[in-house]
Specification:
Layout (H helix, E strand, L loop, with lengths): L5 E2 L2 E2 L8 H19 L6 H12 L11 H27 L15 H19 L3 H11 L5 H8 L3 H19 L4
Antiparallel strand pairs: 1-2
Helix pairs in contact: 1-2, 1-3, 2-3, 4-7, 5-7, 6-7
Length: about 180
Amino acid sequence: MASNDIAFGVPTLGREPLSVQRAICRYHDSLISFLRQRLRRPDDAVDVAQEAYIRMLQYEGSRDIHSPSSMLFRIAINVANDLERSEQVRHLSDQCSVDDVELVSGAPSPEREVAGQQDLAKLHEAIVQLPPKCRQVFLLSRARGMTYPEIARHCGISVKMVEKHISHALAVCMKKVGDGP
C-alpha cells in the first residue's frame, strides 16, 4: 500500500472527501448549543463557530479526516480557548496601576474650602450691612424662596420696589464677594 493510501494507519481509499459545507449543515445546531454552554458569553457562540468553519476549510476535500464532527468540535474548542485567552490579555492590558492615575475627589480642596468660608463670611457681612427693608426683601427672596409678588404683599410695597431692593442687594453682595467693582 502506498503512503497516500494510509492516514494514521487507517486505509483512506474508501473514505469520502471532507465537505465543510456538509459538516456545517449537519453539526451547526449542536455546535452552537455546545459553545453556548461552554463560553462565558453565550452570544459569542456564533462567532466562534464561524471561525471554526473558516479554519476547517483548509481541510476541504481531504480524505484523511476520519470524523468531521470530532474535528469540527476540536477546532471550535481551540477557537474558544483562543478567545478566552485574548479576553484575559485584553482585561489585563485595560488595567493600570493606581499609582499612574490621578484620583479626583468631589470634595473641595482645603484651599477652596477656606476660600468658600471666607466668601461666605463676606456675604454675611454684606447682607447685615444692607438697609433693613432691603435686607428683609432679599432674605425673603433668597432664604425663604418667596416670589416677588408674595414679597410685595408681605412687606406692603410694590413689585417694582421689590425688584429695586433685590437689585441693590445683589450689587452690594457682588461688590463685596464677587470680582465686580
